[in-house]
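Fold this sequence, please.
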Amino acid sequence: MRFSPFFAATLFQVFLAQGLKASPSSVIVAKDAMQAQVALDPDGKVYVVFIQKGNICVSTSADKGMTFGEPVVAIDAQGHAAGGMQRGPRIGVDAKKTITVTAWIVLDPAEREHKYPTGELCLVSSRDGGKTWSKPLQVNDVPKKAPEALHWMAVEPNGTVHLAWLDRRSRPGDGQDIYYAKVSEGKVGKNVKIASEVCECCAPGLGVDAMGNPLIAYREGGTKPSREIFAVRGSEKGESFGKPIQINRESTNISTCPMSAPAVAVSPDGRKVAIAWMDERVTQGDQDVYWAVTYGPKFSRDAIISDITDGSQNHPALAVDGVGKFWAAWEDKRSGEQVIYARSSLNDAKDEKVSSEADGKVSLPSIHAAGKLVGVVYEASKDGEKQVMFRLVAN
């Protein structure tokens, strides 16, 4: 019998029982927009980044996501920014409310003439709430070696930015590796390879604790009957990394790239970590979302997130709130139509539907928590137009 870790007290510390405190419905953040990610701060401000009209844009809310301001261009890509399947930008905010955005941007005009131009990993920041932005800073120090444009980013409270991305600079032929770098006070640290032979088009997952120690999760690559989920712990504020450890206890049953990134959430004290991923262990072609947690050096048994397994699940997102509860959001087809669900790690929590039929086709959720606030953004397609939606699921 498969069980949900959200119900398993043996996997979690006991929390007071309470359910989601959701807003009545989602609100539109921006129209003609896609590939959104969200960050919140404890004062109720919500920051959402997305691709709009080929540029990297940010909309902010000062009222817990009830209303959003007009999008501001954070990176002017001259209409050439592109995304799809988690290739969009990332966003984070530090304790001083400095906003950081990262995205793959084609910097070389000649490269834009190619059918599939290769961009560079760029970073910008804003110290005035998203009104104005710094000039793009290139993070990857070997250009044109990351054609898949897949990365993840996390921001410490002190503003240090941690990044991990797919890169093939060390490969004479096919394949991808994961490189890592820190950005502090506008300076990019050394690019370091931390994992080899990873999935060719699954972004890594990344989380960081308040002490500056990162954890990076990834799906392995290569010619194997089952590509497993691994994690690498950083120490000394990301100056060194341990050996990769396998997270899933049962084979994923996926032998090719599923274009589905693992998700990571790390508690501020660094003692609690959750990693979530999609696999097909029960029946090949039947996708479910699993996760594993740790309160120490070893991860728990991996278990299915949702209490209902009808239909397929994919593209998990994770967050951890100010009191240490984990939160998850994911795509779910239990009803036939794909919708977004979310839930917390309370031992009696239930799956809660985030999106609605009125949103149209929905996908690719992003979840973030700050204090007691938890919010989800996702991409919705209706009447031929893509738009970004937000819903506050706990306050």
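The chain has no helices and 30 strands. The chain has one domain: 27-394.
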